[in-house]
């Protein structure tokens, strides 16, 4: 799949993305606001395992954010099950050289459209660690609303952090 977003795009991961994935993901400034499943240091093995899992998706929900030449980040959503089956958790990251250009906002808007059009979803939500106002702003600009703060709910780098939960509800009327 491929979705244009300005001069960039959201697309299916490719095996050739491994080098760029390591280049941009192996950055403490990127990793500090992500779960530990996104490791630091980020190795070639980590990149290879991620890309192979992305290529094996039954339903494509995880994508590369890319220029015409290389991957510069990632975005996707995790479909939920059981009583949460009409919800999905959104996540995204961008290589530091590309921060502040509106790319994440465009990418989130595109994922919202795709998730609500192609999946039986009513709710998208995202968690943001305390101290990440840029990500909060991306979500607010794309229509997400802060539903609350989960106090000391995250242990990251040996520190307990608050996190905020943001959600967007699709109009089903």
Can you tag this structure with a few keywords?
173 residues, alpha+beta, Aminopeptidase, eight-stranded mixed sheet, 5 helices, 28% helix
Structure, explained:
The model has no long low-confidence stretch (mean pLDDT 97). The protein has an 8-stranded mixed β-sheet, with helices on both faces. It has 173 residues and is α+β, with helices and mostly antiparallel strands. The protein has a domain at 2-122: Aminopeptidase (3-Layer(aba) Sandwich). The longest helix has 16 residues, at 103-118. The protein is globular and about 45 Å long. It has helices at 18-25, 28-31, 44-55, 103-118, 133-141; strands at residues 2-5, 8-11, 62-66, 71-79, 87-94, 123-129, 145-156, 159-169.
Given the C-alpha coordinates, what overall shape results? Answer: globular
Written as H for each helix and E for each strand, in order along the chain, the element string is EEHHHEEEHEHEE
Spans of 5+ residues with little confidence (pLDDT < 50)?
none
Largest sheet: 8 strands, mixed
Mean pLDDT: 97
Q: What is the helix tally?
A: 5
Number of strands: 8
Task: Provide the CATH superfamily of the domain at 2-122.
Answer: Gcn5-related N-acetyltransferase (GNAT)
What is the helix fraction of residues, given as a range? 25-40%
Structural class by helix and strand composition: alpha+beta
Q: What is the straight-line distance between the termini?
A: 29 Å
State the CATH topology of the domain at 2-122. Answer: Aminopeptidase
Say what oligomer this is. Answer: single chain
**What is the C-alpha radius of gyration, as a whole number of Å?**
16 Å
Give the DSSP E fraction (strand runs of 2 or more residues): 25-35%
Architecture of the domain at 2-122, according to CATH?
3-Layer(aba) Sandwich
CATH class identity of the domain at 2-122: Alpha Beta
Strand order of the largest sheet: 1-2-3-4-5-6-8-7
């Amino acid at each position: 799949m491929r979705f244009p977003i300005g001069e960039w795009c959201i697309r299916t991961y490719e095996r050739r993305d491994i080098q760029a994935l390591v280049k941009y993901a192996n950055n403490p400034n990127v990793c500090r606001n992500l779960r530990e499943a996104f490791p630091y240091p980020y190795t070639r093995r980590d990149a290879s395992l991620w890309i192979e899992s992305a290529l094996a998706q039954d339903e494509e929900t995880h994508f590369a954010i890319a220029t015409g030449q290389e991957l510069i980040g990632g975005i996707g959503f995790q479909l939920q099950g059981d009583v949460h089956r009409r919800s999905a958790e959104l996540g995204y990251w961008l290589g530091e050289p590309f921060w502040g250009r509106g790319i994440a906002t465009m990418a989130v808007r595109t994922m919202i459209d795709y998730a609500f059009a192609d999946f039986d979803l009513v709710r998208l939500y995202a968690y943001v660690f305390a101290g990440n106002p840029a990500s909060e702003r991306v979500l607010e600009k794309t229509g997400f609303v802060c539903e609350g703060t989960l106090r000391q709910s995250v242990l990251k780098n040996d520190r307990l952090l608050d996190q905020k939960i943001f959600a967007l509800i699709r109009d089903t009327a």
